[in-house]
Structure formats: structure tokens, C-alpha cells
Write a structure and sequence with these properties.
Helix 3 packs across helix 4. The protein is an all-alpha fold. It is 64% helix and 0% strand.
């Protein structure tokens, strides 16, 4: 099941960093989508003055993803 979901989400050009985060969640990461979403929305609000889900810029997801991976000492 996990591999079928992963094969379906690979190649998502619309939201590549959200997709990478989802992949790590499926492999058992110890963080939740909710906590990473909150970080992305907070970053978006700081950068742009407001943030409305689901319109979170990919650059915000990228920064959250890179911080998440760095905290785990994993390659980006």
C-alpha cells in the first residue's frame, strides 16, 4: 500500500516539497503534517503578512522541508 501511494505522488510538479514531506511521513517520520503545516503557514505569514491555507507558497514548504531534513541530519 505504502509503495502504491508513493508511486502515485512521485512526479508531483505542483507541490514538490509537500510531496517530499508526505513521503517522509509515510516512511514513519516522527513529525506530523500538522506541525510542518503550522511552520509553513507561520513562515508565510512572516514573509507576506498573511497566509491562507491551502495557498502556501512552495518556497515556504521548501524552507520547512530543508529545516526538517537538517534537524534529522538527512540529505536534502
Amino acid at each position: 500500500m505504502k509503495l502504491a501511494v508513493l508511486s502515485d505522488i512521485h512526479g508531483n510538479d505542483i507541490a514538490p516539497y509537500w510531496t517530499r514531506i508526505t513521503e517522509w511521513m509515510l516512511w514513519g517520520a516522527d513529525s506530523s503534517h500538522g506541525s510542518l503545516l503550522a511552520q509553513a503557514m507561520e513562515l508565510c505569514t512572516r514573509k507576506y503578512g498573511r497566509c491562507q491555507w491551502p495557498m502556501i507558497p512552495e518556497e515556504c514548504w521548501q524552507e520547512v522541508y530543508e529545516r526538517f531534513m537538517a534537524a534529522k541530519d538527512l540529505p536534502v
